[in-house]
Predict the structure.
Amino acid sequence: MQAATDTPPSDRNLPRIGRGFRLQWEPAQSAHVLLYPEGMVKLNASAGEILVRCDGVTPVDSIVADLEKRFATIGLERDVRAFLDLAAEQRWVEWV
Amino acid sequence: MNDIATDATAAPAIGPPHWLLAELTYRCPLHCVFCYNPVDFAKHEDELTTAEWLRVLREAREIGAVQCGFSGGEPLQRNDLEILVAEAHRLGYYTNLITSGIGLNEQRIGWLKEAGLDHIQLSFQDSTREVNDFLSSTRTFDLKRKAAGLIKAYGYSMVLNCVIHRLNIDHIDRIIALAVELEADYLELANTQFYSWAHLNRDQLLPTREQLVHAEAVTNQWREKLGSKMKIFFVVPDYYESRPKKCMNGWGNVFMTIAPDGVALPCHTARMLPGLAFPSVREQNVRDIWYASEGFNRFRGTGWMKEPCATCPEREKDLGGCRCQAYMLAQDPAAADPVCDKSPRHAELVATVDRLQTPREDAAVIPLVFRGRKESLAADRLF
């Protein structure tokens, strides 16, 4: 919760996978999953694509640009930021 | 033999086992009166070798297991723990160590961290030296504080589990205070459920209604005070419920335990159930055990149910409760869990709970049975 509430929006620029969580591709689920103590979240395709780019060194702008290029589209920033805020609330990501 | 598995109406498609619990050993330096290891554990001491465990880890991962718990007994008693954790990590498991902390020192936690261990759950018996030593029958309390310090220092979240019962429930305020002092992130106050050694000691361990109400009130005061700083889970004894738990989230649904001698089980106490052949990983591979063994298919889905479960509108919600509890309390593993107030045997359970509200006159002369090898070898019952 600290990440979501204590970090001012202007500083929410470098997301990385939260402490205690592990992101990996799971062949048995045909999906990216987030693993944490005694649990697992199965991610849909777009959540997986965003989270694999959260490496703690890539700024949100670059993540958005990369996704727009990869999927040949534009205007993803709002959705990506909304997802990252939600993910931070769940502690899936934290801000560096 | 597999008629249940092939009956499409009774058994939906079987998913992968998400959880692999590797009970590496029944050896343990503690002698807890509520231990969930089988009462006859000392008759199953032929432990899997390192090579056999490595094969089990690979086979379970191949069919989709993602969480791997290392427990026991005390898993730190195995000096190949680091090798097994490293392989589990390499295979892509999220690795969990469930430990009393005895045997955890700076060198071992360093090795475990390097091996890729993701998570540690530390168990505490009580917050005071006197009661803790009494209940675990060894002088371990200072060691546990040290273990807690190491866990924090190596960057793990601090997850404390304290088993609660009649003899320590009135200390709950101090237990929570200790967890705060140790900067725990999560505290699980898990009331003893009555299996195995706890079942032997049931009359001395079941808390009274009054104790439970008080303990929950104290817990709630702390929750308010602590906010999101520390998350506290309070687990009520099944005996005080009127609906059963969905035990193991369903038999053979997501969970597989491998006992120290290689016997594969749908839960860590299922070994007590009569008339079920649970295969060993020494004889069969994990895939066949999970999908095709009689032991894992016997209580999958709802097709095995009798009344009142078979036509109960809540049958999918709790799947009839716990098979072991049904066996222990109603002498039939296919009966409704007597915790459920729809069970014809529920009234007996209520009578037992009522009887235990007042301590027996002779309570002082009924000794607690501490878990031990000698007691285990002498045991003439399985729970």
Q: What stands out?
A: Residues 1-5 of chain A have pLDDT under 50 and may be disordered. Helices of chain A lie at 2-6, 45-51, 60-70, 77-89.
